[in-house]
Design brief:
With 190 residues, the chain is α+β, with helices and mostly antiparallel strands. 47% of the residues lie in helices and 16% in strands. It folds into two domains: 101 residues, no CATH class; 52 residues, no CATH class. Strand 5 and strand 6 form a beta hairpin. Helix 4 packs across helix 5.
Length: 190
């Protein structure tokens, strides 16, 4: 039996779009504080914008089953949940440092120009070693968002009920009832 679920589908599409939009906002949020061994840092978790640009809301339908998924760069999960170790390429760390516009200092405390690639590379290498030893601190940007939005799914019974109500005649006929009048159905024996 195929039940017409247009209200449920619309509800899930709206829910998924809201979750997607909120995730974009969460990535860019500048008031997220992470506590590192050296000091706390308050900034967005976005540096280059690659993570935000990678996110896509994907709808698929297979054999009557519809699904909505938010897909994006694999490292989003690592940023959300944290890792015990990480081994990013130095070139990506250099790009990250430059795009972040970070104020870098060498061992003597002198400011390092972001155009001095040799010194920036050395700092990126040290960051890589630290990430390899300590991993990535979790941000919970996805986990917190899901926990915040999950309650909205409790209201899905309303569109489902409406879909059943809208398709009730078809449901009764498909389950063995026969329509005998304008509003009457009887069960038939075969």
């Amino acid at each position: 039996m195929s039940l017409k679920l247009k209200n449920t589908e619309k509800y899930l599409k709206t829910y998924s779009q809201d979750l997607y939009d909120s995730m974009i906002v969460e990535i860019a949020r500048k008031d997220r504080t992470r506590n590192y061994q050296s000091r706390p840092i308050t900034s967005s978790i976005s540096a280059s914008g690659d993570l935000q640009r990678s996110l896509k809301l994907h709808k698929s339908r297979k054999t009557g089953i519809i699904s909505f998924n938010i897909i994006g760069n694999e490292y989003a999960e690592s940023v959300d949940e944290g890792t015990t170790t990480s081994n990013p390429p130095v070139s990506k760390l250099i790009d990250w440092l430059i795009s972040k516009g970070a104020t870098l200092r060498d061992y003597n405390g002198d400011v390092v120009s972001l155009s001095d690639i040799k010194k920036v590379s050395s700092i990126a290498y040290l960051i890589k070693k630290s990430l390899n030893r300590r991993g990535i601190q979790k941000t919970n940007f996805i986990t917190d968002l899901i926990n915040d939005k999950i309650g909205k799914l409790d209201q899905i019974d309303e569109p489902i009920s409406q879909d059943v109500y809208d398709d009730l005649e078809n449901i009764l006929i498909k389950t063995g009832y026969k329509k005998t009048g304008k509003e009457r159905f009887i069960i038939t024996k075969e």
